Amino acid sequence: MATMSPLSRVRTAEPAVREESTGQLLSDITSDLQVLFRQELELAKAELKQEGTKAGKAAGMFGGAGFAGYMVLLFLSLAAVFGLARVMDEGWAALIVAALWAIAAAVLYQMGRARMRTVSPKPENTVQTLKEDAQWARHPTK
């Protein structure tokens, strides 16, 4: 005489069939989708916060690197002034180094201005897509 284990009884039992209306099923699906959407939104928020923290730390490091680069240029400029001061008056040496920096600043300004003129503040592709979506919404059969 074989005895049945509790697991085998559960496996052989027929699943209970629930009789629910279509409206109830749609309501359940809608609420499940809402919960899923909220959970996905919370996950996205958490990921964005984490990535934002990492980006902030990286930006701080870039800022530190920029300051260090500035200090290097400052001391190289001083070294150039002192080097030129060995062959000419100190005032003229400082003026020559300052003039070289002024030329570099003017060139960088012109290059930046030229590139800035190519920047469009309006997201052209997004605007075009939105126009197409609006057109489709007005006439979905076309």
Describe, in plain words, how this protein is organized in 3D.
This protein is an all-alpha fold. The protein contains four helices and no strands. The protein has helices at residues 6-12, 22-85, 90-116, 124-138. Helix 2 (22-85) packs antiparallel against helix 3 (90-116). It is elongated, with a radius of gyration of 35 Å. The N and C termini lie far apart (74 Å). The mean pLDDT is 84.
Short description:
With 142 residues, the chain is an all-alpha fold.
Keywords:
142 residues; mainly alpha; 4 helices; elongated
- Shape type: elongated
* CA radius of gyration: 35 Å
Which structural class do the helices and strands define?
mainly alpha
Low-confidence stretches: none
Q: Determine the mean pLDDT.
A: 84
Distance, first to last CA: 74 Å
Number of strands: 0
Ordered list of secondary-structure elements with their pairings:
Layout: H1 6-12, H2 22-85, H3 90-116, H4 124-138
Helix pairs in contact: 2-3
